Amino acid sequence: MNKVYGSFIFFFYFIKYPLVIGLPISYFYLDMQNNWILDILWFISSLLIINDWFFYQSRCDCKPKNK
Fold it and tell me: How far, in Å, CA of 53 to CA of 41, rounded?
């Protein structure tokens, strides 16, 4: 199960921006047929991008606490 979880993290870390930018271009300009699996991946990727933009402040500052 850890390998599956790690592959999803790896996939969405590197693929979310090209997918969100490239899929609408493929649909509107390259006349690609509608694919519901890519639509779901596009939706998840866009939610992850929104999460990265708006909740950036809640990340750890990674400073040692005992100094």
Answer: 18
State pTM to two decimals. Answer: 0.69
Number of CB atoms found within 10 A of residue 31's CB: 7
The distance of Cα 18 from the centroid of its chain, to the nearest Å, equals 9
Tens digit of pLDDT for each residue in 21-32?
Answer: 999 999 999 999
Dig out the tokens for 15 from the structure.
């693929």
- What are the strands, taking DSSP E only, across the chain? none
- Residue 48 backbone dihedrals phi, psi, to 5 degrees: -65, -35
Q: Which of 51, 32, 48, 50 is nearest to 40 (CA)?
A: 48
Q: Is the dihedral of CA 10, 38, 43, 4 positive or negative?
A: negative
